[in-house]
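User: My advisor, Dr. K., asked me to get a structural model of this assembly before our group meeting. I'm new to this, so sorry if the format is off. These are the inputs:
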Amino acid sequence: MQKKNEHKTICSYCGVGCGIVVEQDSKGNISVEGDQDYPVNKGMLCSKGKNLNYVAQDTSDRILYPEMRWSRNHPLQRVSWDTAFDRAAAVFRSIIEKHGPDSVGFYVSGQCLTEEYYLVNKLTKGFIGTNNIDTNSRLCMSSAVVGYKKMLGEDSVPISYDDIELSDCFLIAGANPAWCHPILFRRIENHKENNPNVKIIVVDPRKTQTCAAADLHLQILPGTDVILFNAMARWLIEKKKIDKNFIKKHTVNFDAVKESAFQLSMKKAAELCGIPIEDIKKAAMYIGNANAFISMWTMGLNQSVIGVSKNVALMNLSLLTGQIGKPGAGPFSLTGQPNAMGGREVGGMASLLAAHRELGNPKHRKEVSDFWGGKEIKSEPGYTATEMFDALESGKMKAVWIICTNPIVSMPNVHKAEKALKNANFVVVQDISHNSETTKYADLLLPAAGWLEKEGTMTNSERRISYLPKVIDAPGEALPDAEILWKFAQKMGYHGFDYKNASEVYDEHCLLTKGTEIDISGLSYERLKNEGSFQWPVPHATHKGTPRLFTDYQFFTNDKKSHFNAPYTLYNKSELTNPEYPLILNTGRVRDQWHTRTKTGKVKRLLTHIPDPYLEMNKVDAYLRKIKDGDIAVVKSRRGTVRVKVKVNFDIREKVVFLPMHWGKVLNNDFGRANNLTNDLVDPVSKEPDFKYCAVEVAKYVKP
Ligand code: SF4
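Assistant: The format is fine. Below is the predicted structure of the whole assembly, which you can bring to the meeting.
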């Protein structure tokens, strides 16, 4: 039974979304432990989750009151909330009047709660009159969104975590869940320990911790995933390991995929992927022989100029084998951030509309604008993440409002983002912490309430919606993000923002989903508090939620069938290597850090695992450059340089190097910031950047 001073909430880090019990003692000290009753983690927490109490209690870095500069040459100075809102509204109004609504925009985060996401979308698309609202989720899962829409008709993860224990084959591609989704991975490991026949295939150019549990590690060359998945498809078709009945009854476009899969021989595919042909056949055989097959993927597939092709090529394997809509089976995109899924529900991207409606559909736009009672919603997508910073750099956009994200470390080709914010007329940064490097670009800095300091909801990777209560007061004058947004909207003179609390925002969001595929009109804070979490859809007040989609094989497409999609390209040719830049840089996460370290960077215990940035490099490549383990090296791309300590091993492929993406300023801006090097090219459909593929050279650092 829950004790009086105990509160059940959700971890604020990754998309696994573990349940946490928070306890506050009489002195105000906070402790956290895994929620034994929560279906996701059943009491388990990873190192990041276990140390959340330190983050919640350490207010030394917090932004405590609004700060404003009167001009770029002046320092930030403390102001009242009234002055801050007056200035923000005056500047936004004047810019919109002079340059039109598309000259302003909002750049938000998959860490925002659903209510905040909902409000910023309503404000931007429905009242300011621009679709310039995008999110850092664009940088991590927009390719999966497009992939799901193309294959299943909607951005809809079909399965649950509980399917893990019902599966007997996992293909984990472009993901390192042992470090990045640890509790989910622990469930997979436990399942395999209890069922040794379960097969795990890992696709990654690096031998990561996840490979420790793998039956087969396909250590492919970067950018060759589509070729690999197509080769597997070819083998499945040739060996008649496909589900003909499912394909005939429930899919369309099989021939296009067959044609794509047969473009290359197995031998050629193996050669291009840099892996033995026998391993590709073995992996395909594991999939073809499985009773229940799950594919899992994250950034290794999504963050690419061919991210959508990678997604559809992988999902084709589930359709070929009829592995969807049944226990233990389905294509499962793992979200990186805690509420990336919630953001998608409210249409929290420049190309989306609320409740998975289509921005390009006039009927859908009218439904939403009538519901909000604001302006007509524009049909053209707004600026996506990289486009927004390009528009600020070129002067097309004049003002940006950044919420809960740190683009000065996380954007690809980050020097461009710096120039963009310097060039902007007006930058609002709304965040909890001065640790964010982006705060120094703010003309107006707004203090936001953090985890445990506000109430709201989040949706994890398996469509599970949970309520997060307010447990403690925010420090200083910090306000919940939702309140900041509705107060700003009121100051702009927009009607329909006179909320008294977040619960009213949530009710409005739920009502707007009515009749859609993600209908959660049966939900309310009361239900979430009393009955626990629910997986959408939840279409009426006694509905218990939907753990698995498509059990009736009725997909969300117009013809109700699942759609095979031929990948539009086989190769990633975004940036060719040459003698000057002969290596491919891959970026990613380490176990105990989160995003740009604004929270995890201040927890001493989390620094014991990997305290500093490092470049992982194959011993052969290091030997050829006279670099030894522990040496400082300079990594150079066509966009910038990074100085960093080198970790030499045989775990990474030759001609590939790896740099974690978390670190920003260490000694100076060029020390360890991976995105000095990365490319801001994007997938043409999903507009997700190519973080995993840029040509670099590495040389031993010599002190000048
Ligand atoms: Fe938090 Fe993710 Fe760790 Fe769970 S696995 S405790 S959600 S960081």
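One thing worth pointing out at the meeting: The chain has 23 helices and 26 strands.

User: Perfect, thanks a lot.
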